[in-house]
Each structure stands twice: as structure tokens, then as C-alpha cells.
Amino acid sequence: MTADVAAARDEDAQISALEALARQARELVDAVVLTDADPAELAAVTAELAALTDRLRAVRRATPLPHEFGPDGTFRHLGNAVTGACNPHALPLVVERPATGGSRAELTFRPTHEGPPGTVHGGVTAMILDHLLGDTVAAAGRPGMTGTLTIRYRGRVPYGEPVVATGAVTRVEGRKTWADAVIADTAGTPLVEATGLFITPKAWLFPGAGG
Ligand SMILES: CCCCCCCC/C=C\CCCCCCCC(=O)SCCNC(=O)CCNC(=O)[C@H](O)C(C)(C)COP(=O)(O)OP(=O)(O)OC[C@H]1O[C@@H](n2cnc3c(N)ncnc32)[C@H](O)[C@@H]1OP(=O)(O)O
């Protein structure tokens, strides 16, 4: 085994272990939101969690996991707030890019995403749509930063039930790209609609230009 292959296997093992930790941390958050344990039990669990937090902090990175190209050549950001498999905060959203164009994701929100009673928080759905729009423009070869994001909340988004998010580019002009996205129920009824204007930074047109 060459040193390169050994290093790649070490990295794979590190990432798999981090993904497992992030999944468990999501389970923990869900358990916290729904627990009905008594105060003594809550205090005991809190003390154990404080000890675990100290153990993780003992070996600390300076920054979250980087944006990078994975072993299969595709772009990945394992620490991303929306898609990052190693980020407990992430849903995580798994985005597909259908051959017909645009982006698509099936997702199920959890009680931890609740805003109004029985309804997913509007900021959470906006975050998902922002990311899906960003992926949609990137899939069209026009990666960009969100310039504006307009949301129309048409119906309550439930948690605990699958919904589908889809996005498509609608217009391009110079470094600007507009796209629409929607979260719909499985019957196709739109619940939240979004329009975004994305601006491709000059540096991304000519990577390395720095401007
Ligand atoms: C090597 C490439 C690597 C790429 C890798 C990507 C892979 C992707 C893969 C997977 C998908 C990931 C998906 C992520 C999705 C998440 C997206 C977010 O959450 S983004 C965070 C929130 N947004 C910000 O933080 C922006 C902060 N703002 C800025 O950085 C700048 O203001 C920026 C880039 C938006 C524009 O800066 P300027 O200097 O390039 O723009 P100027 O030259 O001033 O303007 C150009 C034109 O755009 C208009 N413009 C600029 N900003 C605007 C705005 N905010 N709203 C409307 N128009 C704007 C201007 O009026 C101008 O228009 P006129 O040419 O005159 O017609």
C-alpha cells in the first residue's frame, strides 16, 4: 500500500466516523426537543454531555471542514449548514441533479424545525430553498452568491411528512442568474415558492483571479 492510498483510507475513516457522530448528534437534538425526562435526569444527561463536549474540544480544528472536490471529482462541503453530512445542524439535504436539468431534493423536516404550531419555521424553509436555488444555478454552470431571495409562503409545511423541493434557472444576464424553486407536498401542491438572483463573483469566472 502506498503512502497516498494509506492517507486516503485514513481520511475516509475520519470522514465516516465524523458522519456517524453528526448523525448521532442530530438524534440527540431531536431527543432533546421531545424529551419529557424529569429535572434530575435532565441534569444528569447535561453533565454527561458537558464531559463529551470537552472530549471533542480537546482536539479542535481551526475552521469547519473545507469546500473541496471529493474522491469522485464532485464538489463537496461536508461542513455545510444545509447539506453537510458531518454537520449536525444540517438536515442534511441530499440534492439530485436530474438529467432534465435543475435540482431536486426529497426531504422530511423534523419536530426540531418547528416554528408555528405543527408547522416548519419559515426561516428553515427559506434556507433550504436558498441552497436549492444555489445548487440549481451551479448545476447550470453558473455558480453564484445569493443577491436577493424572495419567498412566498402559500401553505403550512408539515414536519414528519415527506416533501419535495425542485429548482430551475429562469433567466441569465452577464454574471446574474435568476432561478425559481418550490417546496411541494407529495401530491405536487406548492407550499413555499422562491425566486433568487445569484451573482457570480468575478473570481469564480476566472478562478485564481482573486477579484
Ligand atoms: C471556483 C468556483 C467555485 C464555486 C463553487 C460553487 C459550487 C456550488 C455547488 C453547490 C451549490 C452550493 C449552493 C450554495 C447556496 C447558498 C447560497 C448562499 O447562501 S450565498 C450567501 C449569501 N449571500 C452573500 O453572502 C452575498 C454577499 N454579497 C456579495 O458577496 C456581493 O455583493 C455579490 C457577490 C453578491 C456581488 O458583488 P459583486 O462585486 O460581484 O457585484 P457588483 O459588481 O457590485 O454588481 C454586479 C451586478 O449585480 C448587481 N447586484 C450586486 N449585488 C446585488 C444584490 N445583492 N441584489 C441585486 N443585484 C445585485 C449589481 O447591481 C450589478 O448589476 P449591473 O451589472 O449594474 O446590472
TrEMBL record:
<keyword id="KW-0472">Membrane</keyword>
<keyword id="KW-0966">Cell projection</keyword>
<dbReference type="InterPro" id="IPR052365">
    <property type="entry name" value="THEM4/THEM5_acyl-CoA_thioest"/>
</dbReference>
<dbReference type="InterPro" id="IPR029069">
    <property type="entry name" value="HotDog_dom_sf"/>
</dbReference>
<dbReference type="GO" id="GO:0016020">
    <property type="term" value="C:membrane"/>
</dbReference>
<keyword id="KW-0963">Cytoplasm</keyword>
<keyword id="KW-0053">Apoptosis</keyword>
<feature type="domain" description="Thioesterase">
    <location>
        <begin position="118"/>
        <end position="175"/>
    </location>
</feature>
<comment type="similarity">
    <text>Belongs to the THEM4/THEM5 thioesterase family.</text>
</comment>
<protein>
    <recommendedName>
        <fullName>Acyl-coenzyme A thioesterase THEM4</fullName>
        <ecNumber>3.1.2.2</ecNumber>
    </recommendedName>
</protein>
<feature type="coiled-coil region">
    <location>
        <begin position="8"/>
        <end position="62"/>
    </location>
</feature>
<keyword id="KW-0443">Lipid metabolism</keyword>
<keyword id="KW-0175">Coiled coil</keyword>
<dbReference type="InterPro" id="IPR006683">
    <property type="entry name" value="Thioestr_dom"/>
</dbReference>
<dbReference type="GO" id="GO:0005737">
    <property type="term" value="C:cytoplasm"/>
</dbReference>
<keyword id="KW-1003">Cell membrane</keyword>
<dbReference type="GO" id="GO:0006631">
    <property type="term" value="P:fatty acid metabolic process"/>
</dbReference>
<keyword id="KW-0809">Transit peptide</keyword>
<keyword id="KW-0276">Fatty acid metabolism</keyword>
<dbReference type="Pfam" id="PF03061">
    <property type="entry name" value="4HBT"/>
</dbReference>
<keyword id="KW-0378">Hydrolase</keyword>
<dbReference type="GO" id="GO:0016787">
    <property type="term" value="F:hydrolase activity"/>
</dbReference>
